[in-house]
Design brief:
This protein is α+β, with helices and mostly antiparallel strands. It has a single domain, classed as Glutamine Phosphoribosylpyrophosphate, subunit 1, domain 1. The chain is built from eight helices and 15 strands. Helix 2 runs antiparallel to helix 3 and helix 7 crosses helix 8. The radius of gyration is 18 Å and the shape is globular.
């Protein structure tokens, strides 16, 4: 019998959405992606195809820090990272610090069938040429102005902002995007994409292209967002999945993992689905930009109380 598809996406984590206008704008952007992707899942596409589509749509929205609208590193260049992991094959692929591509997730998808499945900047650039993908500039005027202003201040901020409302940079930072899907065949896939944290040292590697930030097996699939270094230190995505595999429920795995992260004062968030179709999300930051479709309704985490660490559907 076909399984009821499930879907959850995120557009980052942070500390503010600039009031109701910000919430409404972000909610609309997330819901449009959820509805478009879930329609494909309901029509029978694979979890992998759905995740790639969801990531592409989020990468194309300059409101989020991935693809178009990615932040600039300290030298004024955009370098993006993305990963894809198939749960049923338990296969990870990704690119690190790639430039001049519209959809970094496309490269991660291609590498699912490659014997060399994670490529850094030079290898990813060569793959771009090999696939004959068009050269694309993901820079937006807002990101450029943000970088120019910060350069005048000697890069005193440790990371860039993420657009939450209109053309104003907010404090809703840590703008990775991610998609987790369960398809009608019961297969799980997860994808995560990011422009990095902004103003960082050249060569810094994000958690998004590591199993720490993007991980799936046949039991569960997790995408993370937040401070990449904190996610790496917790090995958060893999930790949650292992706990599900060891017998905890998905929400129990989230609650234990986020309780531990909170004690260590980490700044992060995550979304996930398990093989039963349970959907969960968690955060230590004030805001998690997540939305989901459970087959019956669309919901989100945008106005989850600050003190609430985890939620589920």
């Amino acid at each position: 019998m076909p399984v009821q598809p499930k879907l959850i996406i995120h557009g980052g984590a942070g500390s503010s959405l600039q009031g109701k206008g910000g919430v409404a704008a972000v909610r609309q952007a997330l819901y449009e992606v959820v509805e478009d992707v879930y329609q494909q899942l309901a029509a029978g596409v694979s979890a992998e195809a759905a995740v790639v589509l969801g990531c592409q749509l989020l990468e194309d929205n300059p409101r989020f820090n991935a693809g178009t609208g990615s932040v600039l590193q300290s030298d004024g260049q955009i370098r993006m990272s993305a990963a894809l992991m198939s749960g049923d094959r338990q296969r990870f692929s990704g690119v690190i610090n790639v430039a001049r591509v519209q959809h970094p997730i496309d490269l991660a998808e291609y590498l699912q069938t490659s014997p060399d499945r994670v490529l850094s900047d030079q290898g990813a650039a060569e793959l771009l040429r090999e696939l004959q993908l068009p050269v694309y500039n993901p820079l937006t005027e807002l990101r450029l102005q943000e970088w120019l202003q910060e350069r005048q201040q000697n890069f005193s901020r440790t990371m860039a902002g993420v657009v939450a409302e209109g053309d104003v940079a907010s404090e809703a930072r840590r703008g990775t995007i991610g998609v987790v899907a369960l398809d009608q065949q019961g297969h799980l896939t997860v994808g995560t994409s990011t422009g990095g944290k902004g103003f960082e040292r050249i060569g810094r590697v994000s958690d998004s292209a590591m199993p720490a930030g993007n991980y799936a097996t046949g039991e569960a699939a997790i995408s993370c967002t937040g401070i990449g270094e904190d996610i790496i230190d917790e090995c958060l995505a893999a930790r949650i999945v292992v706990r599900v595999t060891d017998g905890l429920s998905l929400i129990q795995s989230f609650e234990r993992s986020f309780s531990e992260a909170q004690k260590r004062q980490r700044d992060l968030g995550a979304i996930g689905i398990d093989r039963t179709g349970a959907i969960a999300w968690g955060k230590t930051s004030e805001i998690l930009l997540a939305a989901y479709h459970d087959g019956v309704q669309v919901g989100d985490s945008l106005e989850m109380p600050v003190e609430m660490g985890c939620g589920f559907s």
